[in-house]
Design a protein that fits this description.
30% helix, Rossmann fold, alpha/beta, 9 strands, globular, single chain, 8 helices, 223 residues
């Protein structure tokens, strides 16, 4: 991702231990498809197998070499011979224009520091999608349970930094701080539209929070 951050390399193995199951939203999104699939910020590759089952070829991209190595190992263990995992920057995708039939950008956009870079990544998504092809994007919500009071206090923060937080990863004796940009639905809508993508559906869902949605999802198409 942009920039490649050492914390994701540090937690790659323990991250893999906790991310074994694909999200239902992703499975529903790719239920019927073929052609070329793309997973931007693929992490440990948990969504590569569902893509591989439905696409003739799949590319998984991650900016952290250690995380990409874990994804590559998982792909090999599952015998997915139509999947390639590449270390790549989300703002400079090593993919030809108009080449992708379906794409996932799950729980990764929010890890890119700086709105300019996040919009650049969305523009790259638009570039590689075939006209009319779809992508599913997810980001953390600023109004989820654990950050609700923090987000209320940040209403007085200058807009350029509002929503930026450091989230600790605490597992296997580690204490690693990770960057997240917490999104409101309106901000996500504006960034997607500024990148030139068309929103066909935008909704929020609870993945871990008990009361308030902790993730926003958007289905987008290339114009």
């Amino acid at each position: 991702m942009k920039p490649v951050r050492n914390e994701w390399n540090a937690i790659a193995e323990s991250f893999d231990e906790t991310r074994q199951h694909p999200w239902r939203e992703c499975l529903d999104f790719i239920a019927v498809h073929d052609g070329t699939g793309l997973d931007i910020g693929c992490g440990n590759g948990r969504h590569l197998a569902p893509l591989a089952e439905r696409c003739s070829s799949v590319i998984g991209l991650d900016g952290a070499p250690a995380m990409a190595a874990v994804a590559r190992r998982n792909v090999q263990r599952q015998g997915l011979d139509n999947v390639t995992v590449v270390v790549a920057d989300a703002t400079r995708l090593p993919v030809a224009s108009d080449a992708v039939d379906i794409a996932l950008f799950i729980a990764s956009l929010h890890n890119i520091p700086g709105r300019r870079h996040r919009i650049a990544a969305l523009r790259e998504l638009r570039r590689v999608l075939k006209p009319g092809s779809r992508a599913l994007i997810s980001v953390w919500s600023k109004w989820q349970d654990r950050f609700r009071m923090y987000s209320l206090r940040q209403l007085l923060t200058p807009w350029k930094t509002a929503g930026d937080v450091m989230v600790p990863w605490k597992k296997n004796g580690m204490q690693v701080e990770r960057f997240y940009h917490l999104y409101g639905r309106g901000e996500l809508r504006r960034d997607i539209r500024r990148a030139g993508l068309h929103i066909t559906r935008l909704w929020s869902a609870r993945k871990a929070s008990e009361r308030h949605p902790d993730n926003h999802f958007a289905v987008v198409t290339a114009r």
